[in-house]
Amino acid sequence: LYMVCDQYSILITGGAGFVGSHLCYLFLKKGFNIISLDSFVNSTYEVSNNIRNLLKYEKVNIQNSFKFIKGDIKDTILLRKIFKEQLDINKPIKGVIHLAGLKSANESFKNPLKYWSNNVCGSINIFKVMEEFNCKIIVFSSSATIYGLTENKIINEKTKIKPINPYGNTKSTIETILNDIYFNSPNSWKIANLRYFNPIGAHPTGMLGENINDTPNNLFPYILQVALKKRNCLNVYGNDWPTKDGTGIRDYIHIMDLAKSHLLSFMNLLNSPPKIINLNIGTGKGTSVLELIRVFEEVNQCEIPWEFKSRRIGDVPICVADNSLCKKVLDWVPKKDIKTMCRDGWKWASSHPNGF
Ligand code: WQD
To answer: I need a surface site. Which of 38, 160, 213, 223 has the fewest CB within 10 A?
Structure first.
């Protein structure tokens, strides 16, 4: 694997983010040449040191196989420059793991145009430059949010796609664009749409994690801030959902399990004829808000004060994956349980109280 993957490189857009940083680490550990492109709108340059330190700590010598570039996926000139540079050093970009994008369902209601411009126009830019350089392998960071409100308690990939927020609309639109590219180009693209459920946690060493500086939109980083006493109370949005304890149920998946699914998806595409696959990346297990709070308190011996608030716009009661397809296609099973997610997330947050 090392020899083969040293003759090309992989571009990870959004490589400085929560998912992206864990992907850079994992792909570098496996010997790939990685270029990370990130605008740092939701992260900082610091993350590259965290990735390098963790690899050094694990005695992984990455030599000069890691480039960490600040830039925007809407900058076509920069994208072309990155692809050209890799071509000139005989390490052409063979595939793209496309994560860059704005990701708050809640925020997307307030500024839909920012979401459409960043997420969709940015993605079109990437696909155009990929085509120019005959780079036709892509793993796309999609989201379970595209399913919207569904009667299905457990969601499989055939579940109707009906987003209920602008963020979800952008993700489903990008999937549609990729579908059109695949079905309307000569038999050439290899595409995997990974529909994330709820990634949380951190690398077990606590040396990588999610930036928890600004006001988190998501539950887990908010719990971390309350545990750090940066906030004194967690708002629980809604106590009257049609669930066992009235609070929202989600399929939380450990960030390292999610990262592994990207590596396996990329290798699967590399070794397959042209194809397009949609995969739900989740554990198949649901956890309510109150259950997550309880597990976090028990595992980390702390108290998370909370109070009920009214429901949040754009939320659904239950969102849990039927993950049988990704288990079959990737021959992969998510291994880490909710206690491990809580333990690893806290290990990161408590050792980095001010973020990176
Ligand atoms: C989880 C549960 C809330 C915050 C979104 C995106 C999805 C993915 C993950 C990118 C819900 C409740 C939350 C809080 C709360 N993003 N909640 N208090 O909305 O399921 O998914 O983030 O990959 O694409 O759609 O995640 O963590 O925001 O909410 O009670 O302060 O926690 O109502 O039931 P969500 P979330």
So the answer is: 160
pTM exceeds 0.90 for this model:
yes
Q: Which residues line ligand 1 (CB under 6 A)?
A: 103, 105, 143, 145, 196, 198, 217-219, 222, 234-237, 248, 250, 289, 312, 315, 319
Q: If you search the block for the tokens 């149920």, which residue do you land on?
A: 249
18, 109, 198, 224, best to mutate for ligand 1 pocket (most atoms within 8 Å of CB): 198
Name the nearest CA neighbour of 291 among 224, 221, 342, 230: 342
**Beta strands 249-250 and 287-288, pairing class:** antiparallel
Residues 10-55 have pLDDT tens digits of 999 999 999 999 999 999 999 999 999 999 988 888 899 999 999 9
User: How far from 256 is each of 188, 217, 345, CA to CA, in Å?
Assistant: 30, 21, 11
Residues of the chain with pLDDT under 50: 1-3
CB atoms within 10 A of CB 301: 7
